[in-house]
Each structure stands twice: as C-alpha cells, then as structure tokens.
Amino acid sequence: SDDSVYYCSSFRTIAQNSCGAGELRVHSFRERMDLSDLDLQSAIEPRVTPWEFLREVVHVYHGHLNLFLKLIVPGVVVGWGSIYFANQIVRDLLRHVQLDPWSIAAHKSEMFEATLVRLSAFLVSWLVYCFCFSGIAVAVQKLEQSTVAERPEDCFKAVWQKRGPLLRLFLILFLIALIGFAVNQFVGLRLLLWLGKFGPSFRGRTGDLVFMLIYLLIYCVLGRFGLAVPALLADGGTPTQALFRADEAADGKAGIVAALVVESVAGTYIAVMLPYWLANAFLAGRVVPDWFPLILQLLGFLGAMHVQPIMFIGVSMLYMKTHAAK
Predict the structure, then answer these.
(1) Of 22, 122, 255, 264, which has the fewest beta carbons less than 10 angstroms from its beta carbon?
(2) C-beta of residue 286 within 8 angstroms of C-beta of residue 216
(3) Burial 111-120 (b: 16+ CB within 10 A, else e)
(4) pLDDT tens across 247-303, in order?
C-alpha cells in the first residue's frame, strides 16, 4: 500500500540522512496514520443530524404503520383507562375536601388514599407502556435484520420470554421518573415563590415555562435511560448492565434524544388538544349534545395513539444503529 511504501522510504531516508530528518518523516507518517483512523471511524459511524434521524424514523413508521399501531394500542388503552378511573376515584374521595391548607390538614387520610390511587394508576400505565415499548423494540430489531415485519404477537412473545429482567428494568426507570418529578415539584415551587415577588402575571407566565422546561429535561433523561430497553432485548444481561450500555450508546446523541422527546411531548399535546381547538373555533356559542365531549376525547385519544410510537421507534433505532456501528 501507499503507507507501506512511504514507511519503507521513511526508514531509507533515516539511514541516508541525519537522525533529525528521519524523525520528522516518521512523525509525519504517524500523523497520516492518525488521520486515516479518524476517517475510518467517521465512515463507520457517520454524523446524522436530529432532523435527518427523525425523517428516517417517520419513514420506517409509515412503512409499517399497522404493525406499530397494533403494538401501541394496549399501552394507550390501558394507560388512558387506568388514569381515567383513578381520576374518578380521586374525585369521589376528595369531593368534600376544599383546596386550602386547613381542609387538607384535616383530611390527611383522604389525601393519602388519593395519592396512592394516582400512584398506582401511574405505575400500571407505566408498566403497560414499557411492555408496548419493548414490543416495538423487538419489531425494530427484526426490521433492521430483514425487511419482513414480525407479527405483533411474535414481538410480545419475545418480550414475555425476558419478562423478569425487563420488569426489574421497568421498575428502575419508574423510580427514576418519580425522583425526577419530585425534583420538578420541589424546584418548580421554589422558583414560583421567588417569581411571586415580581407580580402575579409574571409568575404565571414564567412559572408555566419553568415547569415545562424542567419536564422536558426530565423526559430527556428518561429517554437516555430508555435506550436500556432495546439494549436488554438485543444483548441480554442484567438491567444494570443494560443501563450502562444505554448511557454509552447515548453518548454524543443528546440532540437526537432531545428531538425525539420534544416530538413526543409536543406531538401528543397537539394531537390531544386539536379536537378541542377546532370545536372551539367552529362551534363556539352553539349548543352541543351531552355526548359531544366524549367524541372530542376519543379523537384526542386516537391522535395520541398515532403520535406516540415515533419516540419508541426512534429510541430503538438509535440503539440498534449505534450497536451495529460498534
């Protein structure tokens, strides 16, 4: 090769010329070798912008739309149902409790029960969504290996075979989420108390922005650790090992993870609220039937179901591509 010829000529020059000149040639050769290694690494793992990655994810999603919708349906249905019934139970528990410190202090048992019900519903929703996420990760793994799509039941069967380690991983991620939300409440309330010095209007606008930014940061952290789900399914091991592999795979991919999180949060919010915005724009001041709010809720439910798989597909693809490059 050219480098071999150059290497031999370098030593020939060392023998003929002074030692200093020979060392300069050898140093030049090493620099060339370092540059070639960098070029090889760039060829193995090329830089992809978040926008390009999102377009690829959407392309895969649209190419196998029926498969991914069938995989996400259980999570959306059970998650929405658990939260809905939990809110109904909490409303009945707290119907006599006023939103003031004295009333809350006098009904500590009801407040504890309400918190426990909400937490239980959140846990059920979390586990089912993680189970669906795992099914999507298996489907993405199969699609990376071939263009033939797996059946949803085959994907869930592969997930069920690793239910023990996956369940422990889901609970670890749930604990991380609870810690993040607790930090959000603590920091957010502290900031609201401080912003209250500048007036109610400033506190309201800025407080909403602060809470939103903290939530996005928490979801970015969860998205980074969420790579552990495809890591565990693809490479096995313990949940702790999967978390370390996920952190390694996410290194240098913060922009892509953030883009997936923003797409999921903003897309879900728009999908849920769009029916209400349209109804307010075209039906304002008109009398609507009693069942009309249920129609709006159903439309928002269907919209969220079509948006949410994108982040799960993107996280799975990100790990698979990083793993394949290494």
Answers:
(1) 255
(2) no
(3) beebeebeee
(4) 888 888 888 988 998 888 888 889 989 999 998 888 877 888 888 888 888 898 888
